[in-house]
Write a structure and sequence with these properties.
Elements: H1 2-21, E1 26-29, H2 31-35, E2 43-47, H3 51-56, E3 63-64, H4 70-73, E4 82-86, H5 91-102, E5 108-111, H6 114-118
Length: 121
């Protein structure tokens, strides 16, 4: 019985660490939610995949800003508008969201599952 309690505690700690790792103040949305906001001009949409990935297939309203050079391109974005970020799977976009938060952007949203999830809807 004590062993079961330790396992439950370990799982709870791991879940806490996963949530904390996502970063403070970074919104997470599904591709279904994204679909409903694509025409919202009060938002900025960026795709942080490589130019080759972007060229292969992308969502029309997203501008390509590869993760590797994002820190040099943030001056092209307004800190006054929400930034919605996508990549292939959601990992690079989560990193991009952290970079944007560090650069002073207050409204940052990551698309969970990225283009992999988008292609399923």
């Amino acid at each position: 019985m004590e062993f079961l309690g330790l396992i439950i505690l370990a799982v709870l700690i791991m879940l806490y660490m996963m949530v904390k790792k996502n970063g403070k103040g970074i919104n997470q949305i599904s591709t279904g939610e994204l679909k409903g906001m694509l025409n919202d001009r009060s938002k900025q949409f960026i795709d942080v995949r490589t130019p080759g990935e972007y060229k292969n297939k992308h969502i029309k309203t997203f501008k390509n800003m590869p993760l590797q050079s994002l820190h040099k391109q943030t001056d092209q974005l307004s800190k006054e508008k929400e930034v919605v970020v996508i990549c292939q799977s959601g990992m690079r976009s989560a990193n991009a969201c952290k970079i944007l938060k560090q650069k002073g952007f207050t409204s940052v949203t990551n698309v969970r599952g990225g283009m992999n999830a988008w292609n399923l809807i």
